[in-house]
Amino acid sequence: MPNSLQSLTQQFLDQEAKIREGGGSAGKERQKKYGRMTARERLKALLDHPEDFFELGLWAGYEMYREWGALPAAGVIAGIGKVQGRSCMIIANDATVKAGAFFPQSVKKVLRAQRIAYECRLPILYLVDSSGVFLPLQDEIFPDEDDFGRIFRNNAVMSAAGIPQIAAIMGNCIAGGGYLPVLCDTLIMTEGSGLYLAGPALVKAAIGQVADSEELGGAKMHAEISGTVDFYEPDDEACIKRLRAIVDTLPKEKKDRNKIFSAKSPTESVYELVSGDCTKTYDIHKILDTIVDQDSFQEYKAQYGKTLVAGYATIEGIPLGIVANQREHATTGKGEVEIGGVLYTESADKASRFIMDCNQAKIPLLFLQDVSGFMVGKQAEQSGIIRSGAKLVNTLSNSIVPKITILIGNSFGAGHYALGGKAYDPNFILAWPSAKYAVMGAEQATSTLLHVQKKGESVDHDALKKIKEKYEAQMDIRYGAARGWVDAIIAPHTTRDVLKQLLPLTLRAPIPEQKRFHTGVIQV
User: Fold this and answer.
1) How far apart, in whole angstroms, are the C-alpha atoms of residue 502 and residue 505?
2) Distance in angstroms (rounded) separating the CA atoms of residues 226 and 3
3) Measuring CA to CA, which residue among 404, 348, 388, 395 is closest to residue 371?
4) What is the full DSSP assignment across 119-176?
């Protein structure tokens, strides 16, 4: 089937392989000319198991800066991997892409990686090789609270929180970007690299002084004269060896559990259940059978609010609470039929109560979204749907336990918000290639606009067609991933493995005893 989830997933995987090529042969040749590794070569040498590296924000900047050329992965690689047996967040400038310059989405990507590291108490390793801010877009990078300066603020806050940060300069580190490595706990620098606030040309223009790069900010100068560099290394290989040795001084992690866990159903069976275009109904219980430990799922209020499934389960023995949309249509105890993927008053009330229970027991939450939104219409309004929706949002907003959200299919409107959406601080938010992200579906949006236009003198059908095409393009999960709305697009059959890797990370920062779950005023 051409629109099957499996073929769609393969299309995404092929595109991701191309993105990982970075700036291509020209960029790689430039690195070789300077005797430097590429960013991905550095990662391969640094990581214990490069194949297990969980990359974040790979789609960042996708098709966003066409007037400036391609910007694979926003010119910076970020992700989580093991170094000397320790889980680390790694942020590496890719100098094969625009000389590692920071675009607006590059900054957003680094900020998200820092936030994840902070929340999961992950040491951060910065592999620095950047020409600095991309000047033509400086107005979108420089001044705001979520712009470039926030990176340095986060460096300082994480240092104060005791989260280790190690920077390795293996190329350029120019202008304001120089503060990042100097705000880290430990700084390594390779021969031939440069760390300075202003290059030779700017120094001459500003104060008339003539100086070469080595005098201004070479590794030898910083090691011998300024004292800024802690370790001076001859090349990338020695630098990475030193970096691994420093990480080896950090506290060791607990050994993995010896007990072997497995899911009830093969992970690949998801491709038989879910369609690539989100039109097929399916039983979410069968999806859960591919994700959680066998026989561990205990469904909560199974006979009530059936368009949403909630329950307790374990993944690799770790307890968690699950809130998931049910795409199969359901019949209520009153004999009424409810549409799958829609939140009704009963399902919203159930989710709200379940989230409260998980917070009471300090159990992390997993949200699996395939939601068209809250039910509308006279009957829904009279049942208090907006009141129940507000209660769910309130409960979620004040939740104190770790949260992971996965968009399986539709993620529309307030349904996205109420089930662990990006604005509600999930530790990780992931998506399948089949995910659709928008206020509402393209058909509904176009129909709404058509209804509005009908009140006028004529209907511009060509304009409506263009609006629909634009809306459909924006619903594509790659559009959202390019803008940082999801951390990663994952192959559906890898969902259990991804959760096995990420769930323990969310538990690294224990909830303080004095922090308790409570809400403000809730409409009842």
Assistant:
1) 5
2) 60
3) 348
4) HHT--EEEEEEE--B-GGGGGGTSSSTTSHHHHHHHHHHHHHTT--EEEEEEEEEEGG
What one-letter code names the amino acid at 328?
E
Contact partners, residue 283, CB within 8 Å, separation at least 6: 273, 326, 327, 328
Q: How far is CA 184 from the centre of its chain?
A: 23
Q: Which residues contact 224 (CB under 8 A, 6 or more apart)?
A: none
Question: 214: which 2 tokens?
Answer: 């080595």
DSSP state of 222: I
Is the pLDDT reported for residue 342 higher than 80? yes
Predicted confidence band of residue 1 (pLDDT cuts 50, 70, 90): very low
Q: Dump pLDDT digits (tens) for 420-472.
A: 999 999 999 999 999 998 877 767 666 666 666 666 556 677 777 787 788 88
Q: Is 374 strand, coil or helix?
A: strand
| Residues forming beta bridges with residue 300, ordered by sequence position | 310
Q: How far is CA 337 from CA 36, 332, 407, 414, in A?
A: 64, 6, 25, 22
Q: How far apart are CA 219 and CA 482, in angstroms?
A: 35
Average pLDDT over residues 269-287: 94
As a whole number of angstroms, the distance between CA 113 and CA 151 comes to 10
Are β-strands 186-190 and 231-233 bridged in parallel, bridged antiparallel, or unpaired? parallel
Report the percent of the chain where pLDDT is more than 90: 81
Helix (H, G, I), strand (E, B) or coil at 342: strand
Q: What angle do CA 470, 471, 475 make, to 5 degrees?
A: 120
CA distance 231 to 234: 10
Decide if 341 contacts 372 (C-beta within 8 A): yes
Torsion angle (degrees, nearest 10) of CA 131, 134, 135, 138: -130
Rounded to whole angstroms, how far apart are CA atoms 125 and 166?
A: 5
DSSP letters, 395-442, are HHHT--S-EEEEEEEEEEHHHHHHTT-GGG--SEEEE-TT-EEESS-H
> CB–CB of 274/492 below 8 Å?
yes
- As separate numbers, helices (DSSP H) first and strands (DSSP E) second, the chain gives 20, 20
Q: What mean pLDDT comes out for the span 408-417?
A: 94
pLDDT surpasses 70 at 234: yes
Tokens of 207: 């104060």
Q: Read off the pLDDT of residues 24-74 as tens digits, 9 standing for 90 and up.
A: 999 999 999 999 999 999 999 999 999 999 999 999 999 999 999 999 999
| CA-wise closest residue to 401 among 351, 366, 352 | 366
What is the pTM for the complete model shown? 0.94
Shortest CA distance to 494 belongs to which of 19, 47, 52? 52
69, burial (CB in 10 Å: exposed 0-12, middle 13-18, buried 19+): exposed
Q: Please tell me the distance from the alpha carbon of residue 341 to that of residue 412, in angstroms, as a whole number.
A: 10
